């Protein structure tokens, strides 16, 4: 191969590197939440098993606790927390095993319910819950246990699969991810979660790996991916939702789905309305599954409307 050809190849490679770096920089700016608010108060609560649950508290007014989705810590909800802090005291916490919270094994969903119970008890009175994706299911599980300690719940896009609108989650996914983690292959565990769990095509997962700065953050908490699959157990099989799981839930709830989100989110939300005694379903114009991060102002407006400006 001639020197001219080598130079041309070099120019092409250099150009691709510039493009990749540029895209990563742009995505980094797009998804940057700005870090902790200047007025945030850093606190911890101690769960029943001794796990320390770290959180930041902002704003003033009735308390709302934000429950994050899979492979996310409190940073992902900071934009939403800022929007709500003008009306509420916002508790934005790291679920166990994430961020500054500690972790105690073996994991059980009940332990995460106890984590939220510790936060509620520390707040000193009835609270509101906001949960996103799998976090909404954890919030609902907790509200079912705590009864009147939870005034209202806003559940955004619980990822239930109750019909043929999307393929069910593969039965062996939890074991596959656990096996990857046992070999310390965190990158593969995250790829499995997004590929087989969320249905993102292989090229999309490759794009995320190469170009999303947040990928490395997610690999750091990859060990929590099985936690969310356990939270969602029995709700993503393409069959009707469990009849008794939330039988004790009495708190008024809003199940909201972005109008631009996939059909299965809407089917699952509507199915949940048949399982709860005091629940509303709402489709939010212009929003999709990324709303917590990408459209916090519109989402906060819907939350305030349901909870009430004065938290009543």
Can you put this structure into words, describing what you see?
This protein has twelve helices and eight strands. Strands 1-2-4-3-5-6-7-8 form an eight-stranded mixed sheet, with helices on both faces. Strand 3, helix 2 (78-84) and strand 4 form a beta-alpha-beta unit. The termini are far apart. The protein is globular, with a radius of gyration of 20 Å. It is an alpha/beta fold and 312 residues long. 44% of the residues lie in helices and 16% in strands.
Question: Summarize this, please?
Answer:
With 312 residues, the chain is an alpha/beta fold. 44% of the residues lie in helices and 16% in strands. It has twelve helices and eight strands.
Low-confidence stretches: 2-31
- Give the mean pLDDT: 90
Distance between the termini: 75 Å
What gyration radius follows from the Cα positions, in whole Å?
Answer: 20 Å
Biggest sheet, spatial arrangement of strands: 1-2-4-3-5-6-7-8
| Cα shape | globular
Write down how many β-strands occur, each being a DSSP E stretch of 2 or more residues. Answer: 8
Q: DSSP helix count? A: 12
Order of helices and strands: HEEEHEHEHEHHHHHEHEHH
Question: What structural class should be given to the helix and strand makeup?
Answer: alpha/beta
The amount of helix comes to 40-55%
Residues in β-strands, percent? 15-25%
Instruction: Note the main sheet.
Output: 8 strands, mixed
List the helices and strands and how they pair.
Layout: H1 3-31, E1 41-46, E2 52-59, E3 63-67, H2 78-84, E4 89-93, H3 109-123, E5 127-132, H4 134-146, E6 150-156, H5 173-182, H6 186-197, H7 202-211, H8 214-220, H9 225-231, E7 253-258, H10 263-273, E8 279-284, H11 291-294, H12 296-307
Parallel strand pairs: 3-4, 3-5, 5-6, 6-7, 7-8
Antiparallel strand pairs: 1-2, 2-4
Helix pairs in contact: 2-12, 3-4, 5-6, 6-7, 6-8
